[in-house]
Amino acid sequence: QPTECFLSQPEEKQESTVKAKRRKKKKISDILEKSAPKPGVPADLQNLLSQHFGENRSVIEIEELKLSDSCFLPANDLTHSFSSYLKEICPKWAKLRKNHKEKKSVVMLVICSSALRSLELIKSVTAFKGDCRVLKLFAKHIKIKEQMNMLEKGVFHIGIGTPGRVKALVEQDGLCLNSTKYMILDWNWRDQKLRRMMDIPEV
Predict the structure, then answer these.
(1) The domain that contains 157 carries what CATH number?
(2) Does residue 3 register a pLDDT over 50?
(3) Using an 8 Å Cβ cutoff, are 157 and 97 in contact?
(4) Rounded to an integer, what distance in angstroms lies between the CA atom of residue 134 and that of residue 159?
């Protein structure tokens, strides 16, 4: 009897360690922690769009949604700061900024995963923006009607915000994208759970 008890204990321990290992594998943060950040490439977004729309769109509709490689500018190779990257991809910013007179629109739209990250990017864009107005496009502490009023009354050049609020503004005709020349996706930044914006299903 004592030997049977002794034998049964390590077996239980083995089972519990196997279960613990299995649980760990399921966490997305563990997988992401091991993967090194890589600059985004056009194929990343193209594949994501075809996966997302593939289930409920026809072949012709999917073809129309396809973005050609010529739509994309070089991605940040992760050596640039946000300002220096924008200077590289948009060398004629001063001219674009002066010519922009339309209300309810922005020349450059930056989309990132959270309000805190938006504020971070607004602070780091100072060396690039020059004499232009930047608008916060996120839901934290700012009502959508306030943002719509601001867009209607004034001229803004850069909009930095979250996918949910940008989508809501577009749907409610608060933001028009006709004069938007650049759309920047904050592709590689990760939150506390090590998720990128594209790893969040709602996005």
Answers:
(1) 3.40.50.300
(2) no
(3) yes
(4) 6
Q: The whole model's pTM is what?
A: 0.80
Q: How many CB atoms lie within 10 A of CB 166?
A: 21
Residues 85 and 164 in one domain: yes
Bridge partners, 49 (sequence order)? none
Cα separation of 132 and 192, whole Å? 32
43, 54, 57, 126, 161 from 48: Cα distances, Å: 8, 10, 14, 31, 20
Q: Are 165 and 139 in contact (CB under 8 A)?
A: yes
Helix or strand run (H / E) with residue 135? strand 134-137
Q: φ, ψ for residue 111 (rounded to 5)? A: -115, 125
CA angle 50, 26, 188 (to 5 degrees): 50
Is the same domain home to 52 and 104? no
State which residues form the domain around 159. 78-199
First to last CA, the chain: 59
Mean pLDDT of the chain: 86
